[in-house]
Amino acid sequence: MTPTTSDSPFKAILPYRDVIHTTDSNGNHFGWVDLPSPEALQITGKRLAEYGARLCTITAFNKKKFAQDGDMQMVYNFDLDGAVLTVSIPVTPHDRRVPSLVDYFANADWHEREFAELFEIELTGRDAPKRLFLDPKIDTGVFNRLVPLSSMMNGASTKQLWETIFAETSMPDWAKEAK
After folding, report:
1. pLDDT per residue over 128-172, tens digit each?
2. Residue-wise over 133-158: b if at least 16 C-beta within 10 A, else e?
3. What radius of gyration, in Å, describes the C-alpha atoms of the chain?
4. Nearest Cα to 31, choosing from 16, 49, 18?
5. Domain map of the chain by residue range?
6. Is the distance from CB of 123 to CB of 129 less than 8 angstroms?
């Protein structure tokens, strides 16, 4: 893939952003844009919705492996007539507020509820979302504090996972034997 900034199908939608554009050997189009702040997501999401884009998925992750309260990245993947655009926003430990896109993309609801619950990210522009997994008595972000979800998602092995969980206590024999 050869990165370019011209001839991007996303340039007309986001003329005020630097979109890195690539195509693969089959002619599929891909675009990447890093927004300077979460606030910029609102206008970007609205523009993409106006042009008929479809929200595919949202991913939240810690930028450093095993980080618990450090900088995070939110990645939004959109499809526009077969072209895929990846939009990234930074999320800092000092400001975990991210604008909701549920007014433009109904399917954002599930993703937003998940990362609000697991990463303690506050959604602006919508009511507090109902929990998906955790009992209401359990603090939000508890998984991220015990074993960062991004560490599990980055292919942490079973042994590494249990070593992290039992770092301050005695690890049971069954966990030591895992590979």
Report:
1. 666 666 666 666 655 555 555 555 555 455 566 656 656 656 656
2. eeeeeeebbebbeebbbbbeeeebee
3. 19
4. 18
5. 20-146
6. yes
- Is 85 in contact with 33 (CB distance < 8 Å)? yes
Residue 134 has a pLDDT of 63
Query: Tens digit of pLDDT for each residue in 112-128?
Result: 888 887 787 888 887 76
pTM above 0.90, yes or no: no
N-terminal to C-terminal alpha carbon distance within the chain: 36
Q: Give, in words, the CATH class of 20-146.
A: alpha beta
Collapsing DSSP to helix, strand or coil, 149 comes out as: helix
CA 84, CA 89: separation in Å to the nearest integer?
A: 17
Q: Which helix (H) or strand (E) holds 161?
A: helix 158-165
Q: Which two tokens mark 47?
A: 């523009």
What's the Cα-to-Cα distance from 141 to each of 72, 85, 134, rounded to whole Å?
A: 13, 28, 10
Which residue in this structure is represented by tokens 């450090």? Answer: 70
pLDDT band, very low/low/confident/very high, at 64 (cuts 50, 70, 90)? confident
Measured over all CA atoms, what is the biggest interatomic distance in the chain, rounded to whole angstroms?
A: 59
Contact 73, 61 (CB under 8 A): yes
Assign 111 to helix, strand or coil.
helix
- Which candidate, 100, 87, 90, 143, places its Cα nearest to that of 118? 143
